[in-house]
Amino acid sequence: MFTAMGWRCGCPSRRRLLASWLLIGVVIALPLAACAPAATATPTASTATVAAVHTATPASPSAAITASAIPTRAGATPARPATVGSSPSPAPGTASCAPGVELLGFSDALDKARFAGTDVGGLSALAYDPGRDVYYALVDNERETPARVYTVRLPLDGDGLGAPQIVAVTVLRDAAGQPFTGRTFDGEGMALTPAGDLLIASETEPAIRRFAPEGRLLAELPVPPRFLVAPRGEATANATFESLALSPDGRTLFTAVEGPLAPDGSTDDGRGRLRILRYEDHGAGDFAPAAQYFYLTEPLQGVSEIATLGERDLLVLERGFIPRLGNTVRVFRVSLDGAADVTDQASLAAPGRAPLAKDLLVDVGRCPASGARNPAPQTNPLLDNFEGLALGPAVPDGRRVLLLVSDDNFGATQVTRVIALAVRP
Question: Which of 115, 276, 320, 328 could form a cystine bridge with 301, CB 3.0-4.6 A?
Fold first, then answer.
């Protein structure tokens, strides 16, 4: 989780870097701030909606809870869909964010919404279910409330992104059948298996757990000891497994630490030396650690999510925050071809360590604001604390839909926002 005040961790190493990082961030962000639209009051979703062109088939007649037959997951709690509205999509040809990347639209319809007696917020991971054409959105934590996953319909058609609709909520439970809560669980990454189970990363321990569709705990994956939070391991609290992604064939799983392990540290200009951890399925969902790779972030950034393009090709979401200037959100293409396994390397700071090559796919701050508003200062009011990333269906020209969702930390100065991009990864 990453708050409007920056990293929640108050560790000395981060404080020592803060002054130099802040200077770097100001140098980067001030030119953008000079030409960006001014931030305004708390966003209010318009009443405009866009009709969906995909209607998923319900698992059973009892699963149909709306006139459009949106399905619920087995064991989930249905209620009236949360549909507040959507901001109009950008006019065709005016929404370029980068070469080959177009903003299809955004929606704040889920911001500060309620569903089935729960507060919608803290959305920190997103997974696409192509078989049902729905998405699963993970809540990171909310004090003593149950850990949960929302089933969300994100309608897309030729006019862009319509108003998201929550159609179910699933509570995540431990082996004794008791709900995990914000005190015992900090869900940050999520992937859907071919069998329909959910793999979910919790940043607290950290841990990677497998849950059945109804939210029942099935298993825990092994975590290498050095990735545990200090003093048990070398990781920093609230900077561990923020991401989770499964390869298209369901056999390879990826996660990354949000911030560096203690021996790896950061460069003098604030670039984090991070480790991407690869798991392999040894059969029946029995994933085990197989390799680690050296990933170097941009200054002042952490890795908040990963999506897979193939067995060795990734999209990596980097996200950062500078007080009084706002968020930075960038997505990079990364290939693991020819990459060295650094599992046995005591420190990535040692001479001769080469990070993975990466190419910028899109800087979300370069997208048109398209009428977005934000209650907090941002160089582009479209930006917020984006933590979830998922590849959706193809669009007519062959590009893929890339969805991002922001974590509002259940706070008044941040927004739950969904952004849809058309990309050619």
Answer: 320
Name the residue ranges covered by the structural domains of the chain. 12-423
DSSP string, 91-137: PTTS-EEETTEEEEEEE-TTTT-EETTEE---EEEEEEETTTTEEEE
**What CATH architecture does domain 12-423 belong to?**
5 Propeller (2.115)
Q: Which helix (H) or strand (E) holds 25?
A: helix 12-35
The model's pTM is 0.82
Give the separation between CA 418 and CA 382, rounded to whole angstroms: 10
Contact 7, 17 (CB under 8 A): no
| DSSP track, 340-390 | PP-TT-S-TTSTT--PPPEEEEEEGGGS--TT---SS--SSTT---EEEEE
C-alpha closest to that of 278 among 318, 315, 251: 251
The CA-CA-CA angle for residues 152, 158, 160, to 5°, reads 50
| HSE-up (13 A, CA, CB side) for residue 186 | 15
What DSSP state is assigned to residue 64? -
- Residue 352: is it exposed, middle or buried by C-beta count within 10 angstroms (0-12/13-18/19+)? exposed
Specify whether the CB–CB gap between 1 and 246 falls below 8 A.
no
CB atoms near residue 22 (< 10 Å): 17
Closest residue by Cα to residue 221 from 299, 287, 302: 287
- Helix-then-strand count for the chain, H and E: 1, 25
**28-54 pLDDT, tens per residue?**
343 333 333 333 333 333 322 222 222
Q: What is the pLDDT of residue 20?
A: 45
User: What is the radius of gyration, based on Cα positions, of the chain?
Assistant: 20
Q: Tell me the per-residue pLDDT of 359-386, one tens digit each, with 9 for 90 and over.
A: 999 999 999 999 999 999 999 999 999 9
User: Residue 372: how many CB atoms within 10 A of its CB?
Assistant: 24
